[in-house]
Write a structure and sequence with these properties.
It contains 17 helices and no strands. It is mainly α and 402 residues long. The chain has one domain: MFS general substrate transporter like domains (Growth Hormone, Chain: A, Up-down Bundle), CATH 1.20.1250.20. Helix 7 runs antiparallel to helix 13.
Amino acid sequence: MEKQNNHLNKGVVTLGWVSLLTDIASEMIYPLLPDFLTRVLGASPAALGVIEGVAESTASVLKVVSGWWSDRVHRRKPLVVAGYGLAAIARPLVGFATTWTQVLAIRFTDRFGKGLRTSPRDALIAGLAPRERRGRAFGLQRAMDNAGAFVGPLVAAFLLRYVVKEERTVFLWAFVPGIAGVLLLLARVPEAKQPNEKIKEKKERVDSRERLPRLFWLATGIFVLFTFANSTDAFLLLRAQQAGIPLWQMPLLWAFFNGAKAAVGVPGGALADRIGRLPTIALGWGIYALAYVGFALLSTPLAAWALFAFYALYYALTEGAQAALIADLAPPDLRGRAFGIFYASVGLAALPASVLFGIFWKAFGPRTAFLAGAGLAALATVSLLIMRTRIGGGSGLRPTSQ
């Protein structure tokens, strides 16, 4: 019986495969998009920045709306299906684009779908997985997502090398894994919540219908603080190139990085189930700070490969644990809203974080920028540990038997 209890719900596992297929489709396009925009369509780097800024901001805002709506209608799956379906149809249309403004509209639609699905999907996972296995469940979802990010660029490279002659055809091929993920979602993922959540939900609904608990807001504030240290990973690639990694190896480095994240994602989520969410996240943030110190001092290609492998541990320890933490802190009938607020807060904070990092890089050099990021990450880690000390191991921050 104990062995059986270690198994994850089939719906959770299927959602992992949906994420893998979706990210394969996405990453078949994303690494080729800058070259396609600048070389083929003649867009400027500023246009690329506008496209990605609008895309990510759209996703951040929509996560709040979709999470709130899924709580209101008490259904998650329709929004999840709509989000994945919209992205699967829109994404390959880049293959027909003739201007950068058309790419902007397509990326907007793609990220609209992402914003539509993310909060309801995570609320659905939380409903399908009992508390003592949520860390592992979210760890699996993030690991499969990262596995797709590893496979997608390799598929694109294979197609360009052996099957097709131009990027547009690769973009069109991305329709296949994307629509396969939607069909799998429709056929194999249930709407039903975990039975042992229902009794608790009825008791909590009276008190929690309109308000999220104070601990949720405190945790979100600390995550926003950390996000100001968490600039885009594009700066890491730029730093690796400065260290001597040739341009042709950059896609391989990125695939290696995503593969490492996928390999350690499930163990990282399981650790959060064993020792608690906050200690696991704090450990991950500590690794992040140390990695940034390493990037500040980086000088050789071999060290760059090692640092990217080490940096992947940060994602493994935090991605599943932070989603499980939000699920633990939010009442069941407010989880969609909670995930939406959390993702939007962190997503919007990420925009000035990257801008400020770039300013520091230009004004003081990359070493100072990375060391500043490490210091801010360390400050957020201390804040998280103080929060844990003040509230103890309870309040849903460490799993309890049910």
